[in-house]
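Re: the pair you flagged

First of the two:
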Amino acid sequence: MSLRTAGSVLVVFLWSVAVVLGQDGWSVRYTTQSICTLKGSPVEMSCSYTYPSWHKVTTTFWFIKKYDVENYVSLLDDPDYKGRVTYRSDKMNGHTLTITDLRESDSAEYMFRFITDQTGGKYCGYPGVTLSVTDLQVKVTTTWWSMTLTCSTTCTLTGNPTFTWYSNSKIVQKDPSPSYTIHFKTEDSFYCAVKGINSPAVSVEGHSYFHVTYTHQKICTLNGTSVDISCSYTFPSGHTVSETIWYTKGKLNEAPQILSPGYGGRVEYLGNMQSYSILRITDLREEDSAEYKFRFRTDQTTWEPTFPGTTLTVTGLQVKVTPATVTEGQKVTLTCSTTCTLGDNPTYIWYKNGHVTNQSTSLFLNPVSSEDTGRYSCSVEGHEDLPSDEETLTVTYGPKNTSVSVSPSGEIVEGSSVTLTCSSDANPPVDKYTWYKKNVTSPKASGQSYSITNIISEDRGEYYCEAQNRRGSMNSTSLMIIVAGKQTSVLTAAVGIIVVVLVLILCLSGLMWFRRSTAGSDATTGIQSVHPDPNSDTYTALNMKTRSPEYDTLANVRDSPTVTIPQIDADASDYENYNPS
C-alpha cells in the first residue's frame, strides 16, 4: 500500500466516527455522535456536508427545535441560546457550532441543515449530535480505615479529562482518575475540578464527620414567591445539637446577618434539629438575593463550614421584544426574560391585552401582522398572580384599505362643487396624499382632500388617490364623477312663471282697454247703449262725450249679474239726433 493510499485510509478512518447520511450526492457527516461535558464550559460540534455540483448553498444553520414541517428554529434565533452561540464555516463545506456557558437544559440532540438555490434543495443531517451537560458532585464512601472521595458526573466526560482535587483550596492531587482516597482523620474541606469547573465542597473528620450538604447550590425563584433552602448535616457520635442557625454574609467585611425565626415576619425554621434543617423565606424580594449558609453547635463544640452555601437569586419577569422595531411581515420573538434560570422547566403563560393567548417559553410571531399590535405580559404557571409588566408591541406597516369618498353625494351638475377625501389605514400615519385622474399623467393635487369647484363637463372621469408613508404606498380604487347638464333652479322657474303671469295680465288689461275704447267709438257712431240708474252705486259709467274728470277712470265695478247690452239697429240719421242725456 502506498503512502498516499495509507493517508487516504487514515482520513476515511477519522471520519468513520461520523454519521453519513443521504444519497445522490447529499450528505451530512458529524465529527462525533455524542458529547458529555460540564455545566458552565463551552462546547464545539462540527460537521461536513456534500450536495450536487449544480446546486449552490444559500443557508446553513444548527437547530434542536422544529415547530412545523418547514419551521426550523436556528440556534442563533432561539432566545434560550441568545449571546451563547456562534457559527463558523470553512471553504471545504465544513461547519462548526460553538456554545458557551453550558446549562444542563442544553442537553439535547443537535442537527445541521442546509438549503440550496434549487427547488427542493434542502437537507438535514439526522440523527445529529447528542449533547449531555453535567455538573460535578463529590460522593463519599467510607470504610473503617479510609474514606474515598469520587468526583461524580451523570455521564462520562468526553476527551479523557484530568481531575484536580483541592483541600482547603490547595491542590492535593491531579489525575485522570476521578477518585481521591484519605487515610487519616481530618477536618479539612475537599472539592474537585475539571477544566476550571469546580464541584461543591465537602468536609470530613475521620470516620465521624462534621458535614453539611446543601440540597441546592443555587436557587432561582420569582419575586413575591416563597422558597425553602434546605441542608442535611452530620456530626461525631456522642455530640448533641444545641443550636442551629441560618445566616447570610452579605457584603465583604460585614458581620453575618442571622436569620432568626420570625425575622422581618418572613422567616421560618423547619426540620428535626438533629440531621436536617430548612430555612423558609416568604414574600421574596430581589434584595433577598444572597448566599445563605447553615451552622450548628453541639454540647461539645461549635462548627461552621468554610465551603459555599446556597446562592439564592430572586428575579422578576420581563417581556423582551426582538427586534425592538417591528415591521409587518418580519419575524418577531417575545421572550419572558429572567435574570437567572428558573428551575423545574416552568411553563410560561402569555397574555395579550390582559387575555391568555399562548403557553410557551417564547412567543414567535412569524410573520407579524398589524393585528398583533397590543400589550403583552407573561407569568409562570402556578404563579399567575405575579405577571410581568406589560410591554407594548407596535407593528409598523404601509398604507392599506385606501379608499375615496365624495361630498356632497348624489348627482353632480355643471357649475357645482365637490370634495374628494382619501382615507387609509397605516402606521406610521400617511404623510403624503396625491390625487390623479385616470389616463392623465401628471397629478391633479396633493393633500388628504381635493376640491373641484365650478365643475364643467371636462371634469368628468375616474379619480383616485395614492397614500404614502415611510413603509410604502397604496392606490385607492377609482371613483367615477359623472357631470350632468345645467338644471333650472326652483327660484328661476318661479321668476319665469311670475314674468309670464305679468305679461298675461298686461295683455288682458290692454285688451280690455282696447275694447272699451272701441265701445266709446261705437257711441259716437250711433250705437245705442243701455245706461243704468246714475244714482245706483252698482255701476260707474264712463261719459265719453263730456269726459267729465269724475268719470275718467273705471273704478269700483262690483260683482253683479251680467248685463247684456242689446244691439240697436238704427240708421245713421238716428245717431245724429241721439242725446244720451
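Second of the two:
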Amino acid sequence: MPGEEVSQAKQQLHIIIEAYLKASDVERVLAACDYADLAHEGVTRKSGEPYILHPIAVSCILAHMRLDPETLMAALLHDVIEDTDFSKEDLTEKFGRVVAELVDGVTKLSHSSDKEYNKAASFRKILQATLQDPRVIIIKMADRYHNMTTLDALRPDKRARIAQETFDIFVPMARLVGMNEMADNLEHLCYQNLDLDMFNNVQEALLQTKPKRCQYQTIWETNLTDLLHTYQLSGRIKKKNNNIELLRHFVKNEMDLQELTHSHAFEIILQSIADCDRLVEALRESFQVLHFEDHIRRPLPGGNQFLLIKLKGEETTLSLTIQTELMRKAARFGVVLGDNAPQACRSAIQASMQNLNMLIDDDCAKTTFNDLLDYLHQEKIWVYTPHGHLHELPQGATVVDFAYAASLFLGNHAVGAKINGEMRPLSTPLYSGQVVEIITDVLATPNPDWLSFINTQKARRAIQNILRDQDIEDQRLVGQQALNRALKLFNRCINDLSNEDWIDLLQWRHIESKDTLFEQIAVGDLLPQLVANHLFVKSQGEETQASSNRLIQGTEGIDVKYAHCCNPVFGDPIQGNLSRRGLIVHRARCNNLLHEQHLHPENIMPLQWNNEEADEVSFTAYLCIDLGMNDEQISDLIYQCRKAKTGVEMVRSEGEKTYVNIVVNNRKQIAKIIRDLRMHYGFPRIERLNKGKTEMARVS
C-alpha cells in the first residue's frame, strides 16, 4: 500500500537522524518531511510510487553522511518550489531563510521554451548558489544519485541521456568537491545505463573469476600483514571494492578482460604521513614496483590525498592506496566535512570554487554551460605559492596564468618568476607540485606577446582589459614592437616589409591603415605571430589551407599544417607551434610539442576547433588492436570498419597485434569504431597510435 510505503520511509529517516541529531532538530526535519508530503500529495513518479518517497530517499542519503538539519530539510523540500504551488516565500516563513535559499539553489529554471537554454541556465544557477553555500551541490548530488538508481521506469533513450549528462557533469563535479564515494557510485550507474552489454561482460568476467581472485587476495593480504609487523607499522588493511576502478579502466580501453580479472586493490590506513612514506620504502624493498604516485604532496581534485603504488606478483598485480584515516574520510566525503577536512582538501576545493566563479562571469547561460563542460574535463595541475596557498590551473598553464590566478596585481606587474627557487621566464609551462614565486615591478605592464602562451580566460581577460585602457599612441607603439619581435623568427623586422606586404596585410584584415593593425595587436585581438606567419609562410596547398582555416578558429589567411608526429583529428585538444614552415597543429599532449614549449614557449599558442562538424574533411587515425588476425579476420575487420562508415587505408597483422589505418572525420568517430571493434572481437585493448606502421600493406 502507498501509505505504508511512505510511513516506512519516514520511520527509516527518523531512525537514521535520531542517532546523531538532538531531539529538537529531529522534530524540525520530520516537520519538513510532513510539509513535503502534503505538497506532493497525490503525485506519483514514473514507477507509480508516491513522489514523496524520492525526497525522503535523498534526505536519507545525506543523513547517512551526517549532514546538518538544514541540509536534510532542504533535501526533503528540494522539489517543492519547482513542482508545487508553494513558493520560496512560503518556505522562508515556515522553515527559515537558509532552508529556503538551499531549496531555491537546486530549483531548475523553466522560463524559456528552449530546453537547452533552460538546462544551461539551471546549471549556471546551481553554480552561483554553490559558490554561496556548498550544501547546494551536496543536495544536488544526492538527488541525482537517487534518480540514477530509479532509471528503470524511463524509456531507454531517456535513461541514456540522463546517464550521459551525469557522466559529463555530475561525476567530475563530485570529484571536484571531494565527494569521491558519491562520484564512484554515480559513475558505476552511468556505465550500467550507457553500455549495458559491456557492463554485463565485465561483471560476468569478475563473477567467473571470483574464487581465484579471492585466493590471490588472501595471499596478498597475508604478505602485507607480515610486512606491517616486520616494520612495526600500526595500521589496518582493507580489501578495496575496485570494481568501479576496473570498470573505468576497461571502458576507457586501458586494459583487457584478462588484465581486469588479475588486478586487485587494497587500502592501507596508517597513523601518520611518515608511516605512509615508511611503508612505501618497505614495499620497494620487498616487491617489484610497477608504478608510484604521490598524491599526498600533490592532491587530486577535491584535495584527495594518498600514496598510490602498484605491485607485481607472480600472476597478479596489486594497487595499494596508502593514507591516514582523516585522508580516507576526506577522500570519501570532501566538502561534506566542511572545516573538519584536512587543509589540503579545503585548499583544493577552494581553488576549484574560485575557478568556477570565473565561469559565471559571462552573461550567456549557454556559454557558461559549455565553459563548465570544458573545465570539468580538462587536465589540471596544482601549483603553490611560497606561503603554501594552492592554485588549480589547466594543464599547459604558464607562469603568467599562475600570476593572474594568484592576484590581479601579480599578473599586471609580473616581470619574472622563481620556480622551486630557480629563475624562469614568464612563458615557462608549469607542472603539478611546483612552488612559484612571482617577481614584480610596479612600473611594469602586461605585454601583448603574453596572449600567445597563456591558457586561462582569467589571464586573457585581465591582459586585454589593461591593453585596451592604454593611450591610443601607446597602443600603436606596443603593437608595432610586438610585431617586430614576431618577425624575428623569420629574420625580418618591420622596416623590411614592402608596400606589397602592407597591402596584403590590410586586405587580409579588411582594415585601412597600419595603425589599426598595430592597435589590433596591442589589445590582443590579433596575435603578431599570426601576422608574421601570413606574410612569410607560403602555402603548399591551397585546398589544405582552406579546410584548415575553416576548421580552426582565428586562422583565416594563415598557412596551417597538421603535425605528422601526433596526427591530430578534428575534436582533439590542440595547440599550435609557429615555425618557418607555418602554424603546425599538434595534439595538446604531443611530446614534440612539449619539448618545443620548453625551448621556445613564445611560439606555442592555444587553438580551438570551430564548432561546426568536419564532415567534408578526412583525417587518418592509427589503431593497434591487441589481437593477431589471419587473412579471413582481416577481411572481416575491413568490413566492420566500412560498415561503420569508416574508411580503411592500411592493415597488417604482426604477431599478437594488428595495426590498421582508418579514415575518419572526427574524434567521436574514432571512439565509436574502437567501441564497436572491442565489442565485436571480445573486448581486446585497442590503442590509438600517434603514427602508423610504415611497413603496412595498403588496402585495395
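The domain at 2-149 is CATH 1.10.3210.10 (Hypothetical protein af1432).

-B.
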